[in-house]
Amino acid sequence: MRKLLLRCGVQISPSAEDLGETLCSLNFASHVKGIEYGPACKQADFSELLKYKYLAKKSKHDEKEAKKLQENVQSLQLRLSAREHICRNLQEKAYTPSNAPYASEEIDVVRDQWAKFFTSKYSLLV
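Request: output the structure for the sequence above.
Response:
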């Protein structure tokens, strides 16, 4: 490592009013004196840094959007499953012969009742 030689003009004042600024200047000079530098390194292009920053931000945004979409899909799947269950229950109720509004046994019973009614009514008139 090589020492960086800087010529730094530091103003100091013997006045008591300037004591704070004098101390600050001397501290700065001592820090500058201790600076060492290494081999030169390539600095990244600012536009390239902006590009990577944009890509990182876009990636984070895309992850959030994907998570929202996944939650929406799960919600829709649950709603679909519930509605399919309701539909199956309604279909079972609608097509079960025992729950049909006019089962064949009921029709026979009603027919027999009407037959007895008409037979008793007409037998009285004769």
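Residues 1-41 form one domain.
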